[in-house]
Design brief:
alpha+beta, Alpha-Beta Plaits, two-stranded antiparallel sheet, 6 helices, 6 strands, 33% helix, globular, binds zinc ion
């Protein structure tokens, strides 16, 4: 990589545009930020390789589907180990947790009251102490984009999600996607998982 990982004003402008609507055509982004389409693509690819742009997802409004939203606030010694439990419930929207404070919040979309009861029970069975369950009727949030350029960003390993210290192990996929890893081991593990997942 010729450039060190940094974010300039043009990168920030691109981020703002795609954070608002990630389906904005490259042509339109190019026009708005004033650089060529290939350069826009290159910058987006670079920001993806750092793990900065994590994805482009549809925002589905659960209200339209008649679902009711809840927050479940709980105490847990190992909130980072709840993936297996939460994976079993399709209504889980988000988990926010603090391992240092042993506390977590689950945002849950329930189609009926049984859904929420079974999730609460599953959390209790895995050692969580439920502090509060409440109907969620206010939501606010937007993607954070820094105000000013960053001299240095900290890329994450595409496999283990840990910050990359030192020289990254770089891999380019067939579709031109560039991925950064902590080590060759992480890259191999990633490929193995990817093959398993797509088969
Ligand atoms: Zn890794």
């Amino acid at each position: 990589m010729a450039r060190i990982a940094s974010l300039d004003a043009v990168d920030l402008e691109i981020l703002r545009i795609i954070a608002e609507d990630c389906t904005t055509p490259i042509k339109e982004i190019s026009r708005r930020v004033g650089i060529s389409q290939p350069m826009v693509r290159k910058r987006i690819r670079r920001m993806k390789s750092w793990g900065l742009i994590k994805g482009c997802r549809a925002e589905v409004d659960p209200d339209v589907l008649g679902a009711t939203s809840y927050i479940i606030i709980f105490e847990s010694q190992r909130p980072e180990k709840l993936d297996d439990v939460l994976d079993k419930f399709s209504g889980v929207d988000k988990l926010y947790a603090s391992t240092s404070r042993s506390i977590g919040v689950v945002v849950f979309r329930a189609e009926n009251l049984q859904d929420i009861d079974s999730l609460v029970k599953a959390l209790e069975d895995s050692g969580c102490k439920i502090l509060k369950t409440a109907l969620l009727d206010v939501e606010y949030g937007k993607t954070w984009i820094p105000e000013a350029p960053k001299e240095r960003v900290q890329p994450k390993c595409a496999f283990c999600q840990k910050p990359i210290i030192g020289k990254p192990y770089i891999m380019e996929l067939d579709d031109g996607t560039i991925l950064l890893f902590n080590s060759k081991q992480c890259a191999e593990a990633y490929l193995l998982l990817r093959r398993g997942g797509s088969g």
